[in-house]
Inverse folding.
């Protein structure tokens, strides 16, 4: 998960160093390189006291942190960058599996809604927060939302003719500029999501692809220097 070894473990200083390296990979582009978004030992202890991070294992007087703690911290900072705080933040992180935490760290609010819809009770603070975003959606997270509204269904006769025409004609591709510097290509084989869950999963996949592209670009730039 996120390339973190199953048996990763370290003291507080190792934990902080590893977390700061990985935060640059999961935070949004406008936050990834800002020094003030780095964590330190005091901040980690504060998060633990507030119940936002699980308590570390103890070996004598030394606190030992593992992969669960690292995933929890990455998810915490990613959700904070996306605007969560207070009770919404606590409910988003409480009793999450490592798989859920990795999803939250990668995809922030998009991943959170998918996680919560699998079993969050009505009135869950985190789900309430996400619902409030629907009227003022974050452009960074939901830039693709206009593309994901289900296409209007054609009459059956017209749809059948269209399918026949597609089989005999060469495939066409529609290019859609989502925002400056970002273009999406839609081919005739693309299947429009028909449910809220399917739209969220598509958003998550798109965002994950952007993160992968950013990391690949960064690696290529480092190789050139």
């Amino acid at each position: 998960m996120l390339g973190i070894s199953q048996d990763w473990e370290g003291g507080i200083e190792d934990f902080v160093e590893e977390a700061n390296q990985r935060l640059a990979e999961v935070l949004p582009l406008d936050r990834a390189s800002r020094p003030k978004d780095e964590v330190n030992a005091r901040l980690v202890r504060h998060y633990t006291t507030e119940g936002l991070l699980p308590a570390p294992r103890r070996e004598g007087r030394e606190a030992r942190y593992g992969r669960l703690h690292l995933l929890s911290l990455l998810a915490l900072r990613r959700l904070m960058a996306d605007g969560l705080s207070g009770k919404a933040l606590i409910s988003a992180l409480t009793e999450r599996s490592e798989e859920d935490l990795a999803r939250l760290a990668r995809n922030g609010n998009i991943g959170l809604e998918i996680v919560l819809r699998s079993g969050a009770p009505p009135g869950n603070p985190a789900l309430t927060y996400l619902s409030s975003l629907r009227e003022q959606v974050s452009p960074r997270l939901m830039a693709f939302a206009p593309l994901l509204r289900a296409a209007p269904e054609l009459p059956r006769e017209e749809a059948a003719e269209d399918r026949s025409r597609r089989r005999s004609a060469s495939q066409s591709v529609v290019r859609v500029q989502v925002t400056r510097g970002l273009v999406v290509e839609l081919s005739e084989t693309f299947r429009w999501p028909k449910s809220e869950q399917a739209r969220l999963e598509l958003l998550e996949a798109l965002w994950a692809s952007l993160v992968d592209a950013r990391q690949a670009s960064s690696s290529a730039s480092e190789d050139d220097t």
Q: What stands out?
A: Residues 102 and 167 are 41 Å apart (CA to CA). The mean pLDDT is 75. The radius of gyration is 21 Å. The first helix runs from residue 12 to 26.
